[in-house]
Amino acid sequence: MQKFLKRPRAKFQGFAPHVVYPKESRNDLMKSLVVQCETSAIPVETTLPADFNTFPLIVDALFGFSFKPPTREPFTQIIKTVRASGIHVFSIDIPSGWDVEKGAGEAEDVIVPHAVISLTLPKLCMRDWTGPHFLGGRFVPRQLVEEHKLQMPVYPGSEQIVKLEEISTL
User: 71-120: per-residue pLDDT in tens?
Assistant: First the structure.
């Protein structure tokens, strides 16, 4: 991982993000995202920061939708620490540790988020989710919507995110 000159931490939308990237990926896209963070003065670390409890929010994006339980180290310990922290967690697409179809189940090594933003469409695992739920991305092709009789939400104006009141498309 290439290191760049030390700069002040970047601020985005009033936040000073800090990325925890516990296991380096062989994926070129992921490698490029790490470089983008580093060149933008966003810290990228392999472990949780020592001052972890000073963060106002955790954005959960440890795994992709192809994740298959069970969770393994170092992720198991990260998830346990996040759960014990009491810090609000906002999960992207699927909360970490959840099965994409079955959900969280009774596992203790899963994230229990305060809110979720599904990308493109809610996944099956979100069918029983009752917390705040948002949908991001209004780019589902019309043919796919018609073919599967999807009930897409109405996005106000040019918004890219909409809050879902209930999920009736699953």
Answer: 899 999 999 999 999 999 999 999 999 999 999 877 788 999 999 999 98
From first CA to last CA, the distance across the chain in angstroms is 41
Classify strands 89-92 and 161-164 as parallel, antiparallel or unpaired: unpaired
Domain borders along the chain are 1-46, 49-164
How far, in Å, CA of 152 to CA of 67, rounded?
A: 26
Lowest mean per-residue pLDDT among 95-109, 111-125, 134-148, 154-168: 154-168
| Comparison of pLDDT for 106 and 161, the residue scoring more | 161
Counting beta carbons within 10 angstroms of the beta carbon of residue 82, is it exposed (0 to 12), middle (13 to 18) or buried (19 or more)? Answer: buried
Query: Any idea how long the chain is?
Result: 170
CATH T-level topology, domain 49-164: Rossmann fold (3.40.50)
Q: What is the DSSP string of 70-121?
A: SP-TTHHHHHHHHHHH---EEEESS-TT-BTTTBSTT-SSS---SEEEEESS
**Residue 118 pairs with which residues in a beta bridge?**
135
2 pLDDT exceeds 60? no
**Is cis: bond before 22, omega within 30 of 0?**
no
Q: Look at the alpha carbons of 32, 36, 39, 41 in this order and tell me if their dihedral is positive or negative.
A: negative
